[in-house]
Amino acid sequence: MRPSHIPKIAPEAFFAWIAGREGRYELVDGEVVMMAGAGRRHDHIVVNLITALNLQTRGGRCQTFTGDTYVATSPATRRMPDLGVDCGTTDDASLVADRPSLVVEVLSPTTGGIDVTIKLAEYQSLPTLDYILLVDTASPKVHFHYRAEDRIWTAIVVEGLDAAIRLDKLEVRLELRDIYAGLEFRPKPKLVEPASEACEPGGSDP
Fold it and tell me: Which molecular function GO terms apply here (predicted)?
């Protein structure tokens, strides 16, 4: 991600500025930041997640949104997660989620560091948000952040194609097999311990 060479602007001016422009941009503390491009594995996972979420939220009180919808994390910041679920009112003219309950970031080498630090802290400050998924692309692994009953954030790692994630407040269940459908993974190298030298029967150390 890299800042563009324009002065700080308000959100209304930002949305006017990006209208009709190519590329994807975020507004970060009043500064316009161009988003890095995503790879094919990233896009494949995003499509799988949108499909799985939309099948379970369609027609309900909450709606799945794509990476063209922004999330306001502060008065001067508009983030663009890869996808999410909005449980607020629907306004066809608005580019900002009204009451986001879930946001998903599919990690990549260029943005992963920001996603798991700065963005994560911003998302966790949102009072309406219940779930955050940080999805790995190299292996079937999801960093799952959720608010417990006391509203304190809890984080667990969900790993393996046989695992699943329950988003009870959304009545959604996501199986990692569906999230990573169509992708192959390189096997992890096995650590082989060197064989210990055995003494011959009846032998002795020199």
Answer: endonuclease activity
